[in-house]
Design brief:
The complex is a heterodimer of chains A (115) and B (116). With 115 residues, chain A is mainly beta. In chain A, strands 2, 4, 5, 6, 9, 10 and 11 form a 7-stranded mixed beta sheet that branches. Chain A has a 4-stranded antiparallel beta sheet with strand order 1-3-8-7, with no helix packed on it. In chain A, β4 and β5 form a beta hairpin. The radius of gyration of chain A is 14 Å and the shape is globular. Chain B is mostly beta strands and 116 residues long. Chain B is built from no helices and 12 strands. In chain B, strands 2, 5, 6, 10, 11 and 12 form a 6-stranded mixed beta sheet that branches. Chain B has a 4-stranded antiparallel beta sheet with strand order 3-9-8-7, with no helix packed on it. Chain B is globular and about 45 Å long. Chain B starts with a strand and ends with a strand. Classes of the chains: A mainly beta (115), B mainly beta (116). At the A-B interface, β4 and β5 of A face β5, β6 and β10 of B.
Chain lengths: 115, 116
């Protein structure tokens, strides 16, 4: 089945610890995104990548890092510098089409909590 | 930068009632408009989209939305809701042509609870 796979489904972080959330897609999409979802705040963009080996900060990048070494993979690391990491994290991907009239597809999400 | 406002944060309806969820955006240029739905425990999935043409668009499961350019609005409607419509609904926009970021700007979401 084609789609976006996020793992793990649930993750717990201790104080001072870095954790990495996995996102893999087999849709052959060029662009990938990480959003953070908090109750009553919708989804906010953390990082995005339009092509391999390139990524850009979104609106709330502080305390997060990413890499894009392969087209299929876009892992997100939540570092110890992120003081409020408890949230639901969603990964998305999007094909490259002319003008941007295309659709984003989402993974099932990872719920991160602090111990 | 664009922004999206969803004024109804939590809506409770009885089955067979009609639904209208408000969405307003702020952006001076042309936009693509989307409604996404998140059923409990499921992926965020596309409900419907508007790119151009007829401002009344139909989506899955009997939902429709109307783009009113003069009001910067893209309200979601359904004539008769079902218990299975219980979910969180997100309005989203992105500029067209894209500005390079090609990311969506989301509203804060509306939680719809349909009572049997």
């Amino acid at each position: 089945d084609g789609g976006i796979t996020q793992s793990p489904k649930y993750l717990f972080r201790k104080e001072g610890q870095n954790v990495t959330l996995s996102c893999e897609q087999n849709l052959n999409h060029d662009a990938m995104y990480w959003y953070r979802q908090d109750p009553g705040q919708g989804l906010r963009l953390i990082y995005y990548s339009q092509i391999v080996n390139d990524f850009q900060k979104g609106d709330i990048a502080e305390g997060y890092s990413v890499s894009r070494e392969k087209k299929e993979s876009f892992p997100l690391t939540v570092t110890s510098a992120q003081k409020n990491p408890t949230a639901f994290y969603l990964c998305a991907s999007r094909p490259r089409t002319s003008g941007g009239r295309d659709i984003q597809y989402f993974g099932a999400g990872t719920r991160l909590s602090v111990l | 930068a664009q922004s999206v406002s969803q004024h109804n944060h939590h809506v409770i309806l009885s089955e067979a009632a009609s639904l209208e969820l408000g969405c307003n955006y702020s952006y001076g240029g042309t936009v693509n408009l989307f409604w996404y739905v998140q059923y409990p425990g499921q992926h965020l999935q596309l409900l419907l989209k508007y790119f151009s043409g007829d401002p009344l668009v139909k989506g899955i499961k009997g939902f429709e939305a109307e783009f009113i350019k003069s009001k910067f609005s893209f309200n979601l409607r359904k004539p008769s809701v079902q218990w299975s419509d219980t979910a969180e609904y997100f309005c989203a926009v992105n500029p067209y042509p894209d500005t390079g970021r090609r990311a969506l700007t989301f509203g804060s979401g509306t939680r719809l609870q349909v009572q049997p």
